[in-house]
Amino acid sequence: MNIWQDKDFPIVVSVAKTLATWTERELVALGYKIVDRSENVVVVRGSLRDVFNLNLRLRTAHRVLVPLLRGRCRHVRELYDKVGSLDWENLIEPDGYFSVASVVHNDSVRDTRLPALVTKDAVVDKIRMKTGRRPDSGPDYDKGTSVFVHWNEDTVIIYLDTSGAPLSKRGYRKIPGSAPMQETLAAACIDAMGWDGTRPFVAPMCGSGTPAIEAALKAMNRAPGSLRSHFGFMGIKGYNQMIPGESAPRVAPRQRFGATPEQIWKDMVQEAAEQEKRDIPAIIATDLSPEAVHNAETNAHAAGVFNKITFAACDFAATDIPKVDSGTSRPGIFVNPEYGMRLGTEEELKPLYDRVGQFFADACKGWTCALITGNPTLAQVVNLKYKHRIPLYNGPIDCRLFIYEL
Hints:
Blueprint: E1 9-14, H1 20-29, E2 36-37, E3 41-46, H2 48-57, E4 63-72, H3 76-84, E5 97-105, H4 114-131, E6 136-137, E7 145-152, E8 155-161, H5 183-193, E9 201-203, H6 210-220, E10 243-244, E11 258-259, H7 261-274, E12 283-287, H8 290-303, E13 310-313, E14 332-335, H9 346-363, E15 368-373, H10 376-381, E16 388-394, E17 397-405
């Protein structure tokens, strides 16, 4: 396939476990028709511009993949042959750079790193055979082209990974802090709360600031992909070459007979910037730790939303909750307390969860309140009737997002 010129091909959007529902909603809101869906992928169809658009705008997705080959594969020798059958010389510059990521569930593979190494060898050997030169390869997803291998039992799918580094890596988390929440999970929690970005948002226990930053990005309508400097599609051969018949809306007259993928991407980023909102509702982030607040401020600076968030170091119950009038949508409060796995025991944390329940009940009437936890016993201590209880994974931890409307 020619990713730059083909007008209709499958685009596989991979997601973290349990987030497919929220990614599907995003895709539908962006105008896409869902072709297929499973626990970890949502499939649409599109072209070059759609690949760019999804990498630019999706908040809850992990990767945007373009399938190159699907076939039967029982062992690594067959994997080498499958990978080597593709025309990599048309996708990767012979003097370029590429990386390989893989997910493998095959009983014949004892070392799950081996398929990625075999894939790299097959790609290099094919390009060297066709051009007499060979590209470099390594683990750096912030440059060059990216390949993704999904090998489940006896079926392998080889993808061109147009994202490179996962979309969860927005590029703003300069200081992660301890046990940070992944950006895509924070975005999904905000969507699950029903918060639409038009009402205030408060994040007590803000940690490294991810929920507050994601809320600010949503309220501003800022495309999360605009924060990154590199995507996997930028390393694909032909990214800087003219595509006959393609044009960006604001191309110079001398380019009216064609545009490069790079020009099209830059134009889309500029158009997204012009759609941002300047005025947004109050967003407040607090934490008991002054160091955590400092880290959150640093990350907010990197995301370009520092002046959109009010930060304070205080106990969560001392957070200044804005007075709000009733409206068609509700303001939101989101907390992510300890689960009793990393810091504190379950017994030690029960008073904290009890105080969270009291805080919601006393200070947050008229708000949608959300709490995520990996400890169902502690969740019961909140002692409030929840409206929704949504399964989510925070990294490897099986969690529940409890949503209360008070």
